[in-house]
Design a protein that fits this description.
This is 2-aminoethylphosphonate ABC transporter substrate-binding protein. It comes from Catenulispora pinistramenti. It contains 11 helices and 14 strands. It is of the alpha/beta class. The two termini are 34 Å apart.
Length: 391
């Protein structure tokens, strides 16, 4: 079972550079990294090891001998039935190195943020990992504390909070998939092409405000229409006649596209790529173009933050440090079909080469995640109104 089959679904377990060749980057007058604090976080206390530095060779430490750490994470990087996944592999290495036992709990992108919020008077989690804009929501709600991890200075600056409350640990991009048998001549070229009546009840996207990737669709549509929110809401209203209906899960749409029940659905590169090569051979990734006629997407990474009042804060810091280590970042593509967020880490594995080729010629536009977080409630409400979806 692929790690990404459970993406955006809930479960709980206890377990022992985005700078790509071929991507067309858009500039922006605003930094994508935000932060409610105008004071930069303190520099990491431990210098980032040089690339290629020898890994520790000490005997593995006993599980639990170093205490414990609890991480709440958006799903997609762990699988209880398949150990060949990023969290599975990295947690084992982390425990062997430190003796720290990892308690893991997962849910959808918004679900884990909500869980941390519900426990803020008595925090249970030490580390929160989720997708934007939910990590920014956690920051705005006072759920995180500043910490500048080792090697954070190597992470793409647009994916690091200026106030030091979050940073990306695994890179990914918004994508769409289509059924190649139903559309042998290729996918829709533009967002407006999706309005064609031939897609009536053959198109579905996960729900903004519920699923991280679905929220990404809303963000991408606003960008596609030049930042004109009214044009985006008008578009979604028109698209609703083709849309099957709300979906809490993005991953659940993949199988429907593969069988032909759907012709088009949203997703993300990490999930869609691995599943199209292993389980859903009729699915293929595409990126629709906006008003400028250029296919585009944006970074939709997993972002980590240290929970305010974390019961095991010191161990939480160690875990975040580890996920940004050279070895863990190289495993991002090799194991998880994702992208390293450290710009100095250059994978050479075949997965990374294939992902880089996939992204050739695609414009990656910047996102100001703090602005997204500020407009989040009103945007989701406007989407609900446009589509007739109950709030």
């Amino acid at each position: 079972m692929s790690q990404v089959l459970t993406r955006r679904l809930g479960a709980a377990f206890a377990v022992g550079g985005l700078a790509l060749t071929g991507l067309t980057a858009c500039s922006s007058s605003k930094s994508a990294a935000g932060g409610s604090s105008t004071t930069a976080a303190a520099a990491a206390s431990t210098p980032c090891p040089a690339l290629g530095a020898a890994a520790p060779t000490a005997a593995p430490k006993a599980d639990g001998s170093g205490g414990q750490v609890t991480i709440y994470s958006a799903d997609g990087l762990y699988d209880s039935k398949d150990d060949n996944n990023w969290y599975n592999q990295e947690f084992k290495k982390f425990t062997a190195l430190t003796g720290i036992h990892v308690n893991y709990s997962e849910d959808g992108s918004g679900g884990v943020e909500t869980k941390v919020d519900s426990e803020k008077s008595n925090p249970k989690a030490d580390v929160l990992v989720t997708l934007p804009p939910f990590i920014q929501k956690a920051e705005a709600s006072g759920l995180l504390q500043a910490y500048s991890p080792t090697c954070v200075d190597k992470v793409d600056p647009s994916l690091v909070d200026r106030g030091g409350q979050w940073e990306a640990v695994m890179g990914d991009y918004l994508s769409f998939i289509y059924n190649t048998k139903a559309m042998p001549d290729g996918p829709p070229k533009t967002w407006n092409d999706l309005l064609d009546p031939k897609f009536a009840k053959k198109l579905q996207y996960s729900t903004p405000g519920v699923a991280g990737d679905g929220t990404g669709v809303m963000i991408a549509a606003i960008q596609a229409f030049g930042g004109d929110r009214n044009a985006a809401w008008d578009y979604f209203k028109k698209l609703q006649s083709n849309n099957v209906g709300p979906s809490k899960s993005t991953g659940a749409l993949e199988s429907k596209v593969n069988t032909g029940d759907l012709w088009v659905a949203n997703g993300d590169v990490q999930m869609n790529y691995v599943d199209s090569t292993t389980q859903y051979p009729n699915n293929k990734i595409f990126f629709p173009a906006g008003n400028d006629g250029k296919p585009s997407t944006f970074s939709l990474p997993y972002m980590a933050g240290l929970v305010k009042g974390a019961p095991n804060a010191a161990n939480g810091k160690k875990l975040i440090d580890f996920l940004l280590s050279e070895g863990a970042q190289l495993d991002a593509s090799k194991v998880a079909y994702g992208f390293p967020t450290r710009t100095d880490v250059k994978p050479t594995d075949s997965n990374y080469a294939a992902l880089t080729a996939l992204m050739q010629g695609v414009t990656v536009f910047p996102v100001d995640w703090n602005e997204v977080a500020q407009n989040y409630n009103s945007d989701v409400k406007a989407w609900d109104t446009a589509t007739g979806t109950p709030s």
